[in-house]
Every structure is written in structure tokens, then in C-alpha cells.
Fold this protein.
Amino acid sequence: MVTLASLWLPILLSAVAILIVSNILWMALPFWHRADYGRLENEKALLDAISSAKSGQYIAPYVNWSKLPPEEREAMAQRPMALTLVRNPAKFNFPGALISWFVYLLVISTFIGYVGAVTLPPASRNVFRVITTVGILAYAFGAVPDSIWYGKPWSVTVKVIVDGVIYGLITGAIFCWLWPH
């Protein structure tokens, strides 16, 4: 039997490796994620409009579609809608975000290790296959609902899925390398 405690090193190393690789994918490769967000023509007007909003998540128009008369619903459907995340003020704590991301990666790696520990014996030949599959499921498909429900561009979601497959492969390789014998 493999214990979760015996997997502390692959858990830690996979989280560190994904922290490094994710930073490379998101920051060092300008062709990969830099174009995920577009620029509005009149950005200042939007920023002025939300300048007094508290940090949070908003939707506009904020209406109960089922209670609108058909003619108002049709008129609303012809206009744009917005799903907006507001950070006000625009302060961003990069070190804090990296620490939170690393803690998240540790939690995910721990759950991946747990699945491996309860399903795979020591010296298993299936470690890479099982851990990689669980890793891909953990990292790759969380963005899909945002494209389905909120209209996030599928091109962005596909890139996040590719990132998740890379993270899953890295996790599988590290666990396979360090799996107890």
C-alpha cells in the first residue's frame, strides 16, 4: 500500500514544476496568453463607469429575463452584455498571488497523489497513466464552463486546456519518477 505521506516529495516537486512552467507559459511566451484579452476602444469610459464599484463580479444588464415582456427581452437581446470582474482599487499583489497559486497547486497535487495512493500499489507500471489522467482532469477542463455559459472565447479555453495537459504530463512524470517501489 502506498501512503499519502510517502508521496510528499512528488507532491511538492510537481507543484514547484507547475509553478515554474505556468509562469513561463503565461509570462515568458508572448505568443501564448498575451492576446487572451482584447482592448476596448473607449476603455476610459468603462473605467469611469465602474470607478465607484466595489471589487466583485458583475453582469450588465442586470435583469430577470423571465420577467421581461417579450418586446423588452428582444430589445435587450440586441444590445451587448458584460460579465465583469472589478478590482477596485487596481492594486495587485503579485507575490501574494504567486503564493496563493502555489498553495492551490499543492492542494491539487495532494488530491492527485491521494487518488494514486488509493488506486496504485508500490512499483505499479500504471503510475504515469493514472496520475497523468487525473492531473489532466484537475488542470485542463475547469475553463470549459466559462466558454459554455459566459461566452469566454474558445480559443482562450483551448489554450488553458493545452496548459492543463502539459501540467498533467509533468505531474505524471514526476510521480512516476518518484513512486515508491
Q: What stands out?
A: Residues 41 and 47 are 12 Å apart (CA to CA). The longest helix spans residues 94-119. The helical segments are 8-28, 43-49, 70-77, 94-119, 127-140, 144-150, 154-178. The two ends are 10 Å apart (CA to CA).
